[in-house]
User: Fold this.
Amino acid sequence: MQLIKTIFESVLLIEPNLFKDNRGFFFESYQKKKLKLLGIEREFVQDNHSFSKDIGTIRGMHFQSPPNAQAKLIRVLSGSVTNYIVDIRKNSPTFKQFDFVQLSSENKLLLYIPVGFANGFKTLEENCEVLYKVDNFYAPESDHSFAYNDIEIGIDWGISTPVLSERDEKAPLFSEIETPFLYGDKI
Assistant:
């Protein structure tokens, strides 16, 4: 496994070692010892699997607050997405900044998003399947979101009429939420 840098020191893009032959390919999509060597020492407790049938589906921007905050390890099983990450740690030097990466079934990249970041993605193909491991169980009372198109954050999603859930359509502005995270927190 090799690391590819993002603008955030703790958000990691991981390229797995891919073994191809005449049958197809093989790779370790999760290997605890190798991830620990890369600095990821989380105990993942739940796998989430999403399916989006339409191009231009947006899911985000989402996060869970303490004590149920979640780190995520994301990969795409089918199709391709642009995944956006926003730093929501109040006193961070990159507070409210975002980065994005393209994840696909073809490039097989994994994205590690630690606690203190919001996450969302846009589908680039029909029939996208995204799998993400989380290190804390889903807790509705801790589940939060903010508007994917909030001008304070400034993400250009490149879509005029996205496919959205009712929740994401009604998400509050970033200024209307209270982020519970601080830079340097050990959660």
